[in-house]
Amino acid sequence: MSFPEKTRVAILISGRGSNMVSVIEAAKAPDYPAEIALVLSNRPEAAGLKRAAEAGIPAKAIDHTPFANRESFDAALDAALREAGIDLVCLAGFMRIFSAGFVEAWAGRMINIHPSLLPLFRGTHTHKQALAAGVRLHGCTVHYVVPELDAGPIIAQAAVPVLPGDDPESLADRVIVQEHRLYPKALALVAAGHAPLKDGRVDFAAACGAEGSLHSL
């Protein structure tokens, strides 16, 4: 899939938007292949909206609560994205499950960051799940969004050790550092057309070249 020289990106948030901020900061670089053209939230009180506005980015809330169903909210969201000329949607703590129609409309053009090494620990409370499972490595994953929750083709991952004495909070603190490093790099790959989908998977040869994986910082 080809994009314009600067891919127009919308970031969707539901809260404070810490991953959003990391992407906004990265996109300030002149050679970054994406521009953050819009920030949308389903919660008018989301702190990330103010942070986006302070960065000079158009920020808008579309409150999901007045809508009769998921499809009608998704239609409003889709209209706002298309009105802004968005090429690529970037989910950053957006706590809504999309209708299948919305996901299909943005197939190959919507990515998400999830706080686990997928396919392990889908859904919520991933750090608690990791500790309960006794894994020694945990981390985060950037993936394309598909109708099945947290099941899309994987673009990039970063791992952290699970240390003795960890609780969900300490583990989350270690993972979020990697999220902030990983997401801007993964978004840049997608925006530049270097992480294409082939037969339902990311073409890693195109994404990484001979130097190996994108991220194990």
From TrEMBL:
Residues 8-187 form the Formyl transferase N-terminal domain. InterPro entries: Formyl_transf_N, Formyl_transf_N_sf, GART. GO terms for molecular function: phosphoribosylglycinamide formyltransferase activity. Pathway: Purine metabolism; IMP biosynthesis via de novo pathway; N(2)-formyl-N(1)-(5-phospho-D-ribosyl)glycinamide from N(1)-(5-phospho-D-ribosyl)glycinamide (10-formyl THF route): step 1/1. One of its GO terms (biological process) is 'de novo' IMP biosynthetic process. The record marks 150 as: Raises pKa of active site His. Its EC number is 2.1.2.2. It catalyses: N(1)-(5-phospho-beta-D-ribosyl)glycinamide + (6R)-10-formyltetrahydrofolate = N(2)-formyl-N(1)-(5-phospho-beta-D-ribosyl)glycinamide + (6S)-5,6,7,8-tetrahydrofolate + H(+). The active site is at 114 (proton donor). GO terms for cellular component: cytosol. It comes from the Bacteria. Pfam families: Formyl_trans_N (PF00551). Keywords: Purine biosynthesis, Transferase. (6R)-10-formyltetrahydrofolate binds at residues 70, 112. Catalyzes the transfer of a formyl group from 10-formyltetrahydrofolate to 5-phospho-ribosyl-glycinamide (GAR), producing 5-phospho-ribosyl-N-formylglycinamide (FGAR) and tetrahydrofolate. This is Phosphoribosylglycinamide formyltransferase. The gene is purN.
